[in-house]
Design a protein that fits this description.
Elements lengths: L10 H5 L2 H10 L2 E7 L3 E7 L2 H9 L3 E2 L8 H5 L22 H9 L5 H5 L2 H15 L4 E3 H6 L1 H11 L6 H12 L7 H24 L5 H12 L4 H16 L2 H14 L1 H9 L4 H12 L8 E3 L3 E3 L2 E3 L4 E4 L1 H4 L34 H18 L4 E2 L21 E3 L1
Parallel strand pairs: 2-8
Antiparallel strand pairs: 1-2, 3-5, 4-10, 5-8, 6-7, 9-10
Helix pairs in contact: 7-18, 9-13, 10-11, 11-12, 11-13, 14-16, 14-18, 16-18
The chain binds protoporphyrin IX containing FE (HEM).
């Protein structure tokens, strides 16, 4: 019997969702659950690799609900505070042609060649963070290492002052907790502060251009009228969140996975050159983005014998696809030299992760440096005290106390 009341957003579930997904892949690969986001809503979980692949590439699933729902369904959508409006223009929530136009404007800033030029800067920051932690003999690997690294780097790319990093991480954390404990009393003031902050930043760059991505986005609007004011805000908002709330999970949960598999950690320590396949394997195994973001059926769509009615919400479960035994040998084993690793950690199709080269480089540098510099790295708490964050899309740790 499949547990129908399971809360897939709870911290408890996040600690080990894999047995549930294995059961779904075997017995009910298209499975309805109810999620609080922000009202109770039926969501279809897609769990087999081949179906996840199809859904991510299938244009019959829209990102923008307006392209899928009937007028009656749209009327019944939960109320959203008006200050959210501009953020609806972020490209991850749009379909072509808007999506294509917006993505074309930023993709040049994230090509593998440009990102490779940041190698020394990422290495220097990694060493700086470990230099600060080393004399203390231990750290919270999330707060002191896995988080500040991607947060600082995406902040620098965009041109967000480093002194504000903690502030905007606090805001994004509150916003991402939506769906688990949606509480408008904290949610609305947070979004207002965040929007106010972004607007001020954009205004400043308009008046005093700098060599950063926010200036480039602002000038795109002024030069060719290609980006509206709302689109600029939504783009910065998306890049800030996607740029750090994901990679923190790769470095954090990835390190935990290595600590839990000492033979694999030893292999990496003895053979640092395998860092590239090792990071691909950690991406597959820990799934920093557990589910692809929302997609809505534009028509009744049948998958694996189950029909998803028009307008309903589908979540393609990447974390399940990456453990599908039809595509990976011994999928529940961590194998840092796994070959032919066609994981879906960065998604697929039109919305394939824009930041994949950046997060790969950050992950490779962070984990290889940690393994090299901290040969006695170990957990400072009992495994049953490890706390995971609740939420819908992402999967990551609250904290990871370690000693060196
Ligand atoms: C380990 C780290 C990361 C993982 C696992 C990851 C995963 C993903 C996935 C699965 C998607 C597709 C979502 C969907 O189709 O619903 C995506 C999209 C996206 N990612 Fe990442 N991501 C990571 C890091 C980053 C970074 C560092 C950036 C910074 C630029 C970034 C920016 C984006 C953007 C802008 C999109 C939307 C692309 C579009 O709509 O065309 N990601 N990411």
């Amino acid at each position: 019997m499949i547990e129908t009341q399971v809360d897939v957003t709870s911290a408890y579930f996040k600690a080990n969702p894999f047995p549930f997904y294995a059961q779904l892949r075997a017995e009910a690969p298209v499975f309805p659950v109810t999620i609080n986001m922000p009202t109770k809503q039926r969501v279809w979980l897609i769990t087999r690799y081949s179906d996840v692949q199809d859904v991510l590439k299938d244009a019959r699933f829209a990102k923008n609900p307006r392209n899928a729902m009937s007028p009656e369904q749209l009327k019944k959508r939960p109320w959203m505070p008006p200050m959210f409006k501009p953020l609806e223009q972020n490209m991850l929530d749009l379909d072509s042609p808007d999506h294509t136009r917006l993505r074309a404007l930023v993709h040049k800033a994230f090509t593998p060649r440009l990102i490779e030029q940041m190698r020394d800067e990422i290495q220097a920051l990694t060493d700086e963070l470990l230099d600060a932690a080393e004399p203390k003999g231990g750290m919270d690997l999330i707060a002191d290492f896995a988080l500040p690294l991607p947060l600082t780097i995406i902040g620098r790319i965009l041109g967000v002052p480093a002194k504000d990093n903690d502030k905007f991480h606090r805001w994004t954390k509150t916003l991402l907790s939506a769906g688990t404990n949606t509480n408008y009393v904290v949610f609305i003031p947070t979004i207002m502060r965040f929007m106010g902050y972004l607007k001020k930043l954009v205004k400043e760059r308009r008046a005093h251009p700098k060599d950063d991505l926010i200036t480039a986005l602002v000038q795109t609007k002024e030069g060719s009228d290609k980006l509206s004011g709302d689109e600029v805000l939504a783009m910065i908002f998306l890049l800030l969140i996607a740029g750090h709330e994901t990679t923190v999970n790769l470095i954090g949960s990835g390190t935990l996975a290595l600590l839990e598999h000492p033979d694999q950690l030893e292999k990496l320590r003895c053979e640092p050159a395998i860092i590239k396949p090792a990071i691909e394997e950690l991406l597959r195994f820990v799934c920093p983005v557990e589910m692809a973001t929302e997609r809505y059926a534009r028509e009744d769509i049948t998958i694996a014998g189950t029909t998803i009615p028009r307008g309903e919400l589908v979540l393609a479960v990447i974390g399940s696809a990456n453990r599908d035994a039809n595509y990976f040998d011994n999928p529940d084993s961590l194998d840092v030299i796994r070959e032919n690793n066609k994981h879906l950690a960065f998604g697929l199709g039109a919305h394939y992760c824009l930041g994949a080269p950046l997060s790969r480089l950050e992950g490779q540098i962070a984990i290889s440096t940690l393994v090299r510099r901290m040969p006695n790295l170990r957990l400072r708490i009992a495994p049953d005290q490890i706390r995971w964050r609740g939420g819908i899309i992402l999967r990551g740790l609250e904290a990871l106390p370690v000693s060196f």
